[in-house]
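Predicting structure from sequence has reshaped protein science. With that in mind, we have picked out one protein's residues alongside their backbone shape tokens:
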Amino acid sequence: MADSTTGPPAAEPQSPSANTANIANAAASPSASPVATPPAATLPTGSAQPAVTDEGEATRNESATIPAEPNSNAITSTEPPLTISEPSASEPNEIAPAEEVPTDDDGNSIYERISSYSASLVSSAINYPIEYGRRFHSFREGVYVLPNDTLEMERLNVTHNMVVRAIGDRLYLAPLEKEKIHKILDVGTGTGIWAIEMGDFFPNAEVFGNDLSPIQPDWVPPNVKFFVEDVESPWIEDEMYDFIFVRHMLVSIADWPKLVRNVYEHCSHLNPGGWAEFQDMDGQYYSQDGTLTEDHETRKWNKQFVDACEGMGRTSRPGPQLKGWVTDAGFQRITHYKFKCPMGPWPVDPHYQDVGTLNLYQLLDGLEGFTLKLFCDYLGHTKEQVFVMMAKVSKELQDPSLHAIFDHHVVFAQKPETSDEENGDA
């Protein structure tokens, strides 16, 4: 199951909308504007598709490094241009027609079953504990180390916009045939922003999102539904999806192979011929030009964060392992892309400037949430020590001479339309 040696299909631009004056608007909660369209932009020529190496791994350009802007400034208040373009269904290799999947005449029946299951969990899920001045999940308390309060919700929405921009203004990269997508599942939906925007792109499909906390807005497209669920517990049986999307579950999953197998086979959650897409980060920071050194507080902080998550059994580096887990689960037509995400607006390339500005914004916004509980409770630091470290990290990240990067991995794959047993194979 080799990686594809082509870039993702070119994006189809959407109608432009008015720009806003402040980057913070990119972080607005979906509840404020349930189906907000980000400001439109045109990518630089040739920038929408990542280049691919001989091994099939993809980065956005053929250069080994991202050139830095000589006179880069720290993060500004100007919002970088963003757009979300509807992916093209085209692909270099023709997609074999999938069999028509029967649909339930009662469009609400699945949601009613899910709602019944989810309702029993909501009362415990909204009893939020407050620690270190931040609100955390109560359902499966302690499983997820990051907060779930308003500040974290805003950061998650900025991160969503950053990743959409990083991968070419796309919500997903899998070569979906729109008319064959009837049910979509967003695993670990968070604020629900991805599911809401997918509900607009697929108005004739049902879009479901699950999460540990019911923090999603009530005002959403009529085809979008949310429910409370721990994806590491047994999944709801008998639910079938044509596309399952799993993004940014780093530091939250104890058994990744089990999660990927659940997507593939448990209770037939993914229809034969259906697609799954996994997007996640490699949480280890690096620089291509040696500007991030072992002496930097950012390096020390990042190493402690990575080590603490590993010690808890919930890796912060799932991205590089996604392809292996997907392969082992039995998927086919596996494609793996890797995108560089600079931490700051220091690159020369306008595309990377946009990504870096949003990335720096979400990192600075989330630094306290990433650090306080984990470093105090698990590593034994005092609050005073943590605040001193965070201040140093924040200052370094805003220094344009520091060219730190992390990688964002995308793996999409298809479930075989017939199993080996059906084909008579051993």
